[in-house]
Each structure stands twice: as C-alpha cells, then as structure tokens.
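Predict the 3D structure for this chain.
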Amino acid sequence: MQLAGKRAIVTGSNSGIGLGIAWELARAGADVVLNSYTDDAEDHALAKDMAAQTGVAVRYIQADMSKGAQCRALIEQAGGCDILVNNAGIQHVAKLEEFPGEKWDAIIAINLSSAFHTSAAALPEMYANGWGRIVNIASAHGLTASPYKSAYVAAKHGVVGLTKTTALEAAGKGVTCNAICPGYVLTPIVEKQIPDQMKTHNMDRDTVIKEVMLSRQPSGEFATVEQMGGTAVFLCSDAAAQITGTTISVDGGWTAL
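Done. Predicted structure below.
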C-alpha cells in the first residue's frame, strides 16, 4: 500500500481508462475522488463499491471538465489532492474541412484545457506540502498523428507540451508531472470510434480493428485499463521521483515505428 495517506483525483473516471487507473490507485492505498460530468446513482455506487473492495475512502464528485470554473472547483471541493490524474477526454472523427466547430471547441476544452485548470488549482497545495504527482493521460496521438482526428491530435500534443512545462516549473519542489501515452485500449470511447472508422474506411468491424485501429500497434493487441493503472501507480511511487517531464508510451510499439 505504497500510496497510503495520499488523496488522488482522477478526472473522467466513471468508466474506461480513468476508472481503471482509479481502481489501481485505490488498491495501492490512496484515497480516491472519482469524477465525471454526470451525477447518477450509478456514479456514487461505483465509489461505494470501490471503497468496500479496497478499504480506502472513495468519493464521487460531479464536475463538467469543459468548464474551467468547474475544473478548479473540483479540486477545492475534494479538499485538494496529492495525486492528480488528468484523464477526461472525448473524441470525434471527421475530415478537417467537415469537422464541426463546436466539436473542436469541446475536445480542446475537455482534453487539454481541463488539465491546465485542474493543475493550476492543485499545484499550490502540492508545493506547500513538498510532494505531488500529476499524471496526464495523453495518447500515442500526442506523439504522432492520424487523419480525421484533428482536434484530438492537437489536444493531445498540447497535453504533452503542458506536461513538460508543468514539470519544469515544479522541478525541485517535490512535484513531478508526466504523461502516459496509450495506444488503443478497448474502452467505451474506442468502441464509439469503431462505427465511424467502419463508415470512413468502408470496412466491417473485425477488418477495421485489424487493418486500421491496430495496424500501427505492432503487438496486435489492445492495451488494458489495468496496465494504464499500473503505469500511473508507478509514476506516483517513490521509484519515479526523478521521472518528470516525460512521456511513457503504453502502445504495443506504435511510436517505435
């Protein structure tokens, strides 16, 4: 239980990668704050179940990560945090000239700007305590690009840049900031991409997974949310105290090509 006594906030964590990371942080002993834009009974039940299974304190706090003020209020309402995982994200696939402006704005706000707002709110207490970990969930698309994903690629490249700047400003203060760059992880957000990719490429499901989605992932396998969680726990551990301002690719070799 190497993270016992630490409080972790994971944005966008009622499903997918965020939920997987939250589970691993809880299993490592951290108290956890779950978050999403909804405020349903199922959200609070997730927190209750996680607390019961891990023995740590778990809360669910609703906040819309497209709204800067709500991002900052999340940190305040949680009572601050030792560990901040900026995971919230959405996706839309379209040709650049057909990409809806409102989708661009939403993706930039949720995938990039939210990480700025939450980090800005969390850092003063981390500095005062002399310890903190910020883990930004970027993407293989934060290091390389694909067609039809202009907003997502731009936002994730921005997350990598924000990670580096945050790390440099936090250096020597006991606070690290790193980005995890997953390849394809079979989560609800990826499931939603499959029909769009099928339409764009005029392929059936199995073919689009093999020849489009995993064509650049040499392992030929989806990564798992548990692997994302394990990587995040490592970055929060004392073993990673001198790892900052960098990216860790969990992409089956995608960015090695």
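DSSP finds eight helices and seven strands in the chain.
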